[in-house]
Amino acid sequence: MGYSLFIGRPDNPISQEEWEAWINDAPDFTLSREWRGTNPKTGEVIAIPCDALGMWVRPDGDGAVAFDYSEGRITLRSDVNAMDKAKQIAEALGAQLTGEEGEIYFPPPKAES
């Protein structure tokens, strides 16, 4: 079981067009309208429709990470290797990167003076 991370803006949801434009400009992402996986026991291919799924190919070539757009935000499963990429996306979209329990990973909280 994984932990979800979210890229979003509290007062101004990310539009699907904005997300797709970002994906189209990113050389290490591909846009898909479905997530596909194979059942390892039966070999059955499972396809799940998605609004705008961004697949990030890891630089080390060790698979891909799905960034799933729905209802104004982007969701990904927690992945140490994807955290920096998620922060880059949040910064580019003027958004926050938060966890399931509301913790903010980006932007860093401002220090109190």
Main beta sheet: 7 strands, antiparallel
Beta-strand fraction estimate: 35-45%
> From the alpha-carbon coordinates, what is the Rg to the nearest angstrom?
15 Å
Structural class: alpha+beta
Calculate the mean pLDDT score and round it.
90
How many alpha or pi helices? 2
**Low-confidence segments:** none
SSE string: EHEEEEHEE
Number of domains: 1
Secondary structure: number of strands: 7
User: Could you say which overall geometry the principal axes of the C-alpha atoms support?
Assistant: globular
What can you see in these coordinates?
The chain has 113 residues and is an alpha+beta fold. The protein has one domain (4-106). The chain contains 2 helices and 7 strands, in the order βαββββαββ. It has helices at 16-25, 80-92; strands at residues 4-8, 29-38, 45-57, 64-70, 73-77, 96-99, 104-106. Strands 2-3-4-5-1-6-7 form a 7-stranded antiparallel beta sheet. Strand 3 (45-57) and strand 4 form a beta hairpin. The termini are far apart. The model has no long low-confidence stretch (mean pLDDT 90).
